[in-house]
Amino acid sequence: MRIGEASRVGGVSARSLRHYEDQGLIVPGRLDNGFRDYCRSTIDRVLVIRSLLESGLPVRLIRKLLPRLPDGSGAGTGTVCAEFLREVQSHRDRLAARIAILGEQRAALDTYLREARRAGSPSAT
């Protein structure tokens, strides 16, 4: 299928498909006229890529995972190497640390806003 149809079927923009290709995540076939030709297995791979990106994994980790999947689908832990799982865990831990810091910053802002509202309210004078 051509890029427009692949875009619709895969639920991503044509630009995303080109980006995935540029990043080495997919390799569509080429027709005689040079147009990209997407087969079903490439679309299945696009669905996996989209899912992994939506879960917050960076492209570098996805690029490591995809060659280990036999058909580009089903990112179950049975087909994933231990090194990849360690990297995903590390990525998750970094996200958790960032979330904790953001929570602390939000709490500090909440405190500031409460105090500022109290200081600015007419009943506080």
TrEMBL record:
UniProtKB keywords: DNA-binding, Repressor, Transcription, Transcription regulation
InterPro entries reported for this sequence: DNA-bd_dom_put_sf, MerR-type_HTH_dom, MerR_fam
Keyword DNA damage: no
SUPFAM superfamilies in the record: Putative DNA-binding domain
Annotated ranges, domain HTH merR-type: 1-68
Signal peptide stretch: none
Gene Ontology MF annotations: DNA binding; DNA-binding transcription factor activity
PROSITE patterns linked to this entry: HTH_MERR_2 (PS50937)
PANTHER family, sorted: MERR-FAMILY TRANSCRIPTIONAL REGULATOR, REDOX-CYCLING DRUG-SENSING TRANSCRIPTIONAL ACTIVATOR SOXR
Protein name: MerR family transcriptional regulator
Lineage of origin: Bacteria, Bacillati, Actinomycetota, Actinomycetes, Kitasatosporales
